[in-house]
Structures are given as C-alpha cells and as structure tokens.
Specification:
The protein has one domain. Helices cover 66% and strands 2% of the residues. Helix 4 packs across helix 7, helix 4 packs across helix 9 and helix 7 runs antiparallel to helix 9. With 248 residues, the protein is mainly α. This is Androgen dependent TFPI regulating protein. It comes from Gorilla gorilla gorilla. GO terms for molecular function: hydrolase activity.
C-alpha cells in the first residue's frame, strides 16, 4: 500500500501546481505589465504565462510553455487519484490508472522537467539574454521564475526516489517522446509564422540550418535524459520494465 507520507507529498505537489496555474492566470490579467512589455514583446517570452489563455498584441493564444505546467498538473492529479484508489482498495493495483501514471512519468514528466531545468539554466548562465532577458526581472517575481525553471527538477527527482515506475520498451518510450517533441516544435514554428517573432530570443540568432541542428540536438539531449531516468529507476528499484506480451 502507498505510504501515507507519499500520498500527502503528492497532494501537496498537486496543490502547488494548481496554485501556480491560478497565479499565472491572474498575472495575465494585469493591465500594467503588458505596458512594460509593449509592442508585442511578451510574444518573445512564452514561458512567463505557463498555463492559461492570455490576450497579447490582439491575439488569443495558448503559450508553448503551458505544456510543461499542464503536464505536471495532470501527472500529479493522476498520481493522487491512484493513491486514493489503492488505499480504498486495500493496496490492490488499479492497473490501467497505474500504467497510465507510469507512462506519463517515464516518457514525459521526468524527461521534460529535467530538460527544462538543465536547458534553461545552461543558457541563462551562458547568456541570459538568449532565454530570459533582465527586463523580465521587473515583471516576473524571482520566486515564480524558480517555480517554473528550478523547483520542477527536485520535485521530479523526488518522485524517482519515492516510488518505482514501470518503463515501457525503449522503442515505445522514445517514440512517444519524439512525437511530443515534434508537436512542441511545430507549435513554436506556428507561432513564429503567425507573429513574425520567436518565442525565445535564442531562435532569432540561428539560421534555418542552425534551428534544425538545435532542435535535433535538443531531442538527443532529452532522449538521453529519458535513458538516464530509466537507469536511475533501475538503480533504486530494480528492473521495472513492462513485460512484453508473448506472441501466440
């Protein structure tokens, strides 16, 4: 049966992400801050309003960065539901829900959170203007920046330590990760063609070939993180790969 402390932890994390989503949605209603980032400048920094719809420069859009926050909220919502059902059923597995929870964590939640943490802070420390210009410090609270780009990593790492997760085959896991990456990149490109402005300043400095190389290397990076997550899970909990179905 899932430990009570683990259930409480999952509930607290879910509450944290719900609070973040609410706070960020309220930030989007602030009529003063858009004046600071005038002339559509906010289009450049989509991670700032991570979840809900926001009007900017006359457009109704969903921010690309919303995927990350939405993903974490969904994952911890499913995890809390899994915790509750297991406790009410005396520790018995709710197979479909548990499998869905593990698939979300192994192929998306862990790789995406770790990638965001590493990619953001590597670029920030190298040249913050490539990812998070200093002007944003006057608009976005420091704690919110860390909530979006720092705290996600220890929270996700704690999940690796607290509970084992069954990994799919490498082919399935990497295929799902690739499909998600393509969808995310497509969204970034679509926003550029719609607005003429890149969501992150670093993209504006790259040629088409450079962008292709950047996106390709990013996938290699996040795929490596996926494989690292599998190794960490195996190191902590042993072999938790999902058994293959036997052919008849």
């Amino acid at each position: 049966m899932t430990k009570t402390s683990t259930c409480i932890y999952h509930f607290l994390v879910l509450s944290w992400y719900i609070f973040l989503n609410y706070y960020i949605s309220q930030e989007g209603k602030d009529e003063v801050k858009p004046k600071i980032l005038a002339n559509g400048a906010r289009w450049k920094y989509m991670t700032l309003l991570n979840l809900l719809k926001n009007r900017t420069a006359g457009f109704d859009i969903y921010q690309p960065g919303s995927f990350r926050q939405l993903l974490q909220t969904i994952f911890y919502g499913v995890t809390c539901l899994d915790d509750v059902l297991k406790r009410t059923k005396g520790g018995k597995d709710v197979k479909f829900l548990t499998a869905f929870r593990d698939l979300l964590f192994t192929t998306l939640a862990f790789p995406v959170s770790t990638f965001v943490f590493l990619a953001f802070w590597i670029l920030f420390l190298y040249n913050r203007d490539l990812i998070y210009p200093k002007v944003l410090d006057t608009v976005i609270p420091v704690w919110l920046n860390h909530a979006m780009h720092t705290f996600i990593f220890p929270i996700t790492l704690a999940e690796v330590v607290l509970r084992p997760h069954s990994y799919p085959s490498k082919k399935t896991g990497l295929t799902l990760l690739a499909a998600t990456s393509i969808a995310y990149i497509s969204r970034i490109l679509w926003l550029y063609f719609e607005t003429g402005t890149w969501v992150y300043p670093v993209f504006a400095k790259l040629s088409p070939l450079g962008l292709a190389a950047f996106f390709s290397l990013s996938y290699v990076f996040i795929a490596s993180i996926y494989l690292l997550g599998e190794k960490l899970n195996h190191w902590k909990w042993g072999d938790m790969r999902q058994p293959r179905k036997k052919r008849k």
